[in-house]
């Protein structure tokens, strides 16, 4: 691949353009909003000049409802040898593409499993897709050269390719992406009119749960509209679980001991099923989930403190597998949770304490 076109210079389109440009690919940028394309170009994502002839690959990064129309326009213009889109749903756009009679031999659907709460070209990063799954959904007509072009795109962006059926992809993202977005928003909505004293008690649990609730509502309406049925099916199942949990919690308040026991069993069942589901989420580098131990360190809010802490771990040969930071409300101090291999927790704890850090190991 030597040349590419990106149609739609939002977060995903501009990030892909930045990654390709960094690899020496000449990228031509288009957007319905010329200012967005010029902004992306100013960031080094490519050029707003039109290509002199067909590029190797056109990447269509527009909302799902617009994929087919944009693809048809690009193919009429002979913009590229091969085409892909990066929409977060695949079955609906594929039906629209078939209805418009687009060339599906030189087209393949795709979806990089990456994103951020912020949108637009200014939120883009060349490393956005590093190590992330990138789903490819070829049509029955997609030829080998088109698939190879998409695989090259994925490789250039540092992602990991996975080939799936379009409908299976949509069922999967309804469960692991679209429904969590709505649930995060529903939980965060409870905070809108909450008392200030309650909000001030917010800790890492509520922050983690509601992080993606900061996403762009209009963008998510477009995504959910394209996968509404599958998301609604999952929400119905969740609603049944919620009803059972509410009934269990009410029973815990009953005077009758037998009812209280039934309520406790119902609530425990939901929590245990949650444990089982959480355990199935792949761990580091896609490996089976690994149980780490947590070393909690109090750290001051000064420049260089976090780097010093990581350097201390490196000096004793401990690899930090994951990290979380909890900030204390109204104080210039935080708690850093370092996830390490069980065999390393004691070594790291002792070494940090010896060097004057306030530390504990959550075994």
Automatic annotation (TrEMBL):
Span of domain Prephenate/arogenate dehydrogenase: 2-289
Keywords: Oxidoreductase
Keyword Oxidoreductase: yes
GO molecular function: prephenate dehydrogenase (NAD+) activity
Broad class of enzyme this protein falls into: oxidoreductase
Enzyme Commission no: 1.3.1.12
UniProt xrefs under PANTHER family: PREPHENATE DEHYDROGENASE (PTHR21363), PREPHENATE DEHYDROGENASE [NADP(+)] (PTHR21363:SF0)
Family: Belongs to the prephenate/arogenate dehydrogenase family.
Protein name per Swiss-Prot or TrEMBL: Prephenate dehydrogenase
Origin species: Streptacidiphilus cavernicola
Species classification: Bacteria, Bacillati, Actinomycetota, Actinomycetes, Kitasatosporales
